[in-house]
Amino acid sequence: MFRKISILLIGLLAVMQLHAQSVKKLTIKEAIDLGVANSKQLVVSNAKIKEAQARVAQSRDKLLPEVGVSANYFHINTPNISFSNNSSSSGSGGNSDSPLAALANMHDIALVQASASWPVFNGFRNKNTRIMNEYLEQASRYDAQTTKSEVTVTTATAIYQYYELLETKRTVEENLKQEQQRVTEFKNMEAQKLLARNDRLKAELQASNVELALTDVNHDVQLAEYNLIVLLGLPDQTTIELDTTGMFNLAGLTTWEEYLQAGLSNRNELKSVDAQVKAGEANYKIAKANRLPTVALTAGYVNAFIPNVVNITNALNGGVALKYSITGALHASHGMQEARAKVEQAEASRQATNDQVRIDIRQKYLNCQKSLDKLTITQKAIEQAEENFQISQNKYKQGLLILSDYLEADVALLQARINYATTRAETMIAYYELQKSTGTLQ
Length: 442
Prior knowledge:
Blueprint: H1 2-20, E1 23-26, H2 28-37, H3 40-61, E2 66-75, E3 108-121, H4 125-191, H5 197-232, E4 239-242, H6 256-266, H7 268-288, E5 294-306, E6 310-323, H8 326-397, H9 403-437
Parallel strand pairs: 1-4
Antiparallel strand pairs: 2-3, 3-5, 5-6
């Protein structure tokens, strides 16, 4: 009975552990989609788009008539009111017969009014405000696309670096097995007096060094995996398993001029600064509008009631309101100077961004080209290291090579395999960065 309970508990613990640590298998596309969906930077960028959209809506609202309604009621005490009356001949205190005498008994006043004003002309201020905000909205959308590209590259970089560490770990583990097997063989040979103790110690030392390297790699893998989990918004207990299908599809490079033209046409940073320059020009027109008068159509409706004095109902009015601020016109030049300075800043920023984009494309193109060249070299290096190791092993067994040279060939093979995994990952990262620099990253 006790044994059955123990088996049941062990089974339950195993199931709980399986649920606690789930395995997430990811392709490169799935990982990038998760990175974009869970990016805090994109949340901020999208919020800025909504803010810009709200400003556009506010500027459109200002094109509509302004309509207002107000109602007032006052209750007052009995005021002391005296009236001068030049006609004192009646001798009867003529004040009591005056039409204004009712004001002495006034205690309540009620006033209801409605007004409407529709701006017909205000120096195109409202129109240019709407145009400026629309350009700023466009700029915020381009900035969000730039942020999305950055998130995509960051996620892809994290994935390929994780792959690089996994491949390094696998390579070191395989090498460690070989080193441990060699140590076992050397111990047997030493026991048979066929090997010097010093050679066996050298083999053990190399195995220890490989084991130490594996410890470092395991630590790096765990850290990279956790960073990736946080980046993708996955639960902390997730174990990531990479699906390498399509991870290393890489098209050949075209000419530098084609990448440059693509970048100058597609980079969202350039589109953003262009929109900001146009927004600045619209802002200059807004500042210039302070020199012009404003014209508006107006309409009103009034109801007034003062007991014993007057009762006004359905009092309608309409007209045209003209306003011209002389002080505003005089001071408009300062606002125009400020707006023009901002346009100049935006224009200079556009030129600087254009230069930076050209440099960035050139740098990313050369980096990708260099990585492709290194990839070809590291592939050949593996073949050379494998052949060198095989020759060194045969020579050592024949007594034609000392142990140090044999072990050195083993280390060179291990390093060549690690270099290939590293270069393979770096090449794909460089390719993603090149696509980002040309604005063609999907």
